[in-house]
Design a protein that fits this description.
6% of the residues lie in helices and 53% in strands. It is mainly beta. Strands 1, 2, 3, 4, 5, 6, 7, 8, 9, 10, 11 and 12 form a twelve-stranded antiparallel sheet that branches. The longest helix has 8 residues, at 113-120.
Length: 191
């Protein structure tokens, strides 16, 4: 975790602030999409092609109001893995209580058919009697969660974040997906 005047690094993302003030932020963004699938590790997926992690690049705009923060992020596959796009519209409401910050959030994510096809589709070559051909279209997923932080002092804090993403039926109906949602948790500390 690093936040400079212009450059920042958060988890799997790097960014450059073109504009950053109390109410508006406009950013060039690069991030890793960590959604790989290695069929050699899961017997039920034998015969599938590997779905690799990738690097995405795009833009993000944040507007902070007295009612919370609104964010719009658009990214594109930057290395040709899936050659598609994702757009994320999010809302966050930071609540500060002493040394603690609680930030509930909600997002709507749109993923184009190239992204969903790469990660969740089944080609003719990969199809089997138990795993039919599947060509998903664009998807609209919903996610909610809460980020928490305990500010030990001005420079050091610890955090724990939890969230769940509910997949669109386009993804949930894929024969290579076991669940219609994905829960995530991240905890750590930053100086």
């Amino acid at each position: 975790l690093y936040q400079g005047e212009r450059v920042f690094a958060y988890g799997n993302s790097l960014g450059f602030n073109f504009v950053r003030n109390e109410t508006f932020q406009f950013v060039a963004l690069a991030r890793a999409r960590l959604t790989s699938v290695d069929p050699t590790e899961i017997p039920e997926l034998e015969g599938l092609s590997v779905r690799d992690n990738t690097l995405e690049a795009g833009l993000m705009a944040n507007v902070t109001t007295p009612f919370g923060q609104f964010s719009l992020t658009g990214v594109r596959d930057a290395v040709g893995r899936y050659d598609g796009d994702e757009v994320d519209l999010s809302y966050r409401l930071p609540i500060r209580l002493g040394q603690w910050t609680f930030t509930p959030w909600a997002s709507v994510l749109w993923q184009d058919e190239r992204l969903t096809g790469y990660y969740y589709g089944v080609s003719e070559e990969e199809a089997t009697p138990d795993r039919p051909l599947y060509t998903p279209g664009a998807a609209r997923n919903f996610a909610v969660g809460v980020n928490t932080a305990w500010h030990v002092n001005e420079r050091f804090f610890m955090f724990a974040n939890v969230g769940i993403e509910k997949y669109d039926d386009v993804i949930a109906n894929s024969p290579i997906i076991e669940s219609s949602s994905n829960a995530r948790m991240l905890a750590g500390a930053a100086w």
